[in-house]
Design a protein that fits this description.
single chain; alpha+beta; five-stranded antiparallel beta sheet; three-stranded antiparallel beta sheet; 12 helices; flat
Length: 456
């Protein structure tokens, strides 16, 4: 059988794609939660149950989702104030509509950070609209005013690539899925999902169908492969990053399984067991012992001890609850969000609080810096004349504003120089005024920067 020209290409996968595909599936299931997480592959069978028992336990299972709150906390903390995007003058239209669907640049950045935290990275693509009457050349596209837009490609759809010596991409293979809804001849609508593959190079693209045949091709005006990887944490590969949930998904799955075992103990051992001395025949032929309860009178044979209830051993349930509680602390420790001391009821010292703040703030600052640099590179492709710069605040407000105010007062009382004084006041303003609208915060920061005094 003759293979079509691009068949081998569309079946190829980058080694990092192959090795991480299972984790990406688990990470997304863990983040989404719900029915998709409740699968036999996530609920492990224990040695004392058969297949039927495992199915019944799976039907009762529920997912305590600790992955989504961790990701949402990171994104909410980083974008609580939001980035400053400069220069403000001459900003292109994509600042207000970055994806061609009405979503502003900051909204697309939030979505990208969320996906990068879950998967480890998400790929930012840059493109221009293609019309039915496609212009013949790139110059014709520019003359028609077809502006660039950004879009996000999930790791599972960014199938293969090759990076050059400087870290830029030499080519990339992307899978595209779209629904084709058409009206059949008999009047019945058809809904078919079609898969296409697009090969991108520095100057053009080739659209390939599922059989490996080229169905369309064209050039693009970017002069490079128009993709930038937004990585949550950087790794060795210029595309693949490390997920915030890299270890947390496995801890969360252990909590899920231990919670299921705890539920099994409660189902099987909640009710105490009745025990009676003697044989069943001594308790009557009518099965009186089966009707024993709080609303009936039961006569037991003379000479025997009264029947009594024995309670199940609660030690196993206590052990599971302690283990689950410890794993919940471990989730937040891995996310650099808590040391666990608050859960244990201890009062932290000032030094301990400072270390907690530095740990969390450093993790937030690293993630913010990664997403800012990724979008700066993407904007350099989409709007090279803009020369956009994206800056997040260095302090993400995870410390208490009142404590920061007290610290600032003591620092300023030392008679520090004007530059140091200005930096302290800027940090204080960002923390105390972070709930104000952006234009009002900017007004205060300009006042601090120019040294103006507020009239009393």
């Amino acid at each position: 059988m003759t293979r079509t020209p691009f068949r081998d290409l569309i079946e190829s996968r980058h080694p990092h794609h192959e090795s991480r595909r299972a984790f990406w599936r688990l990470a997304w299931q863990s983040f989404q939660g719900g029915a998709d997480y409740l699968t036999a592959s996530n609920l492990f069978s224990h040695r004392l149950e058969n297949a039927a028992d495992h199915r019944r336990r799976l039907a009762r299972a529920f997912h305590l989702n600790y992955c989504r709150p961790v990701v949402d906390t990171y994104v909410a903390s980083i974008f609580r104030v939001g980035p400053t995007i400069l220069p403000e003058a001459g900003a292109p239209a994509l600042l207000a509509d970055a994806d061609g669907r009405g979503h502003g640049l900051v909204d697309v950045m939030k979505r990208a950070l969320t996906l990068a935290a879950v998967y480890g990275h998400v790929v930012i693509g840059v493109d221009r609209p293609r019309t039915d009457a496609r212009p013949a050349t790139v110059a014709d596209e520019l003359a028609l005013g077809l502006r660039s837009y950004l879009y996000l490609v999930l790791p599972g759809d960014f199938l293969n690539w090759n990076a050059g010596g400087a870290g830029g991409l030499e080519w990339a293979l992307v899978r595209e899925r779209r629904r084709d809804v058409s009206q059949a001849s008999a009047g019945t609508p058809t809904d078919v999902e079609r898969t296409r593959y697009r090969l991108w190079t520095a100057n053009g693209w080739t659209l390939i169908d599922e059989t490996g045949e080229c169905v369309d091709e064209g050039d693009h005006p970017f002069g490079r492969v128009p993709f930038v990887s937004c990585r949550f944490r950087e790794g060795d590969d210029p595309v693949v990053g490390e997920s915030l949930l890299a270890s947390i998904v496995h801890v969360n799955r252990e909590i899920f399984n231990l919670g299921s075992l705890l539920g099994e103990i409660l189902y099987r051992q909640t009710f105490s067991q009745l025990v009676a001395e003697g044989s069943a025949a001594e308790y009557g032929e009518n099965g009186d012992i089966a009707r024993l309860g709080t609303s009936s009178i039961f006569l037991y044979p003379e000479g025997h001890r009264a029947p009594e209830y024995i309670s199940p051993d609660a030690a196993q349930a206590d052990l599971l609850m302690r283990r689950i509680d410890g794993l919940i602390d471990e989730v937040y420790r891995l996310a650099s969000l808590s040391r666990g001391s608050a859960r244990e009821g201890r009062v932290q010292s000032g030094i301990s609080k400072a270390f907690d703040f530095l740990d969390t703030n450093h993790a937030l600052a690293d993630a913010a810096d990664n997403v800012a640099r990724a979008f700066e590179r993407a904007l350099a492709i989409a709007a090279p004349d803009w020369n956009a710069r994206i800056r997040f605040p260095g302090d993400f407000g995870v410390s208490e504003p009142l404590a920061l105010l007290d610290e600032s007062e003591r620092t300023l009382a030392l008679g520090v120089g004007p530059v140091f004084r200005r930096r302290v006041l800027e940090r204080l303003a960002r923390a105390v005024l972070r709930e104000l609208p952006g234009d009002q915060r900017a007004e205060v920061l300009r006042e601090v920067a120019t040294g103006d005094q507020i009239e009393s």
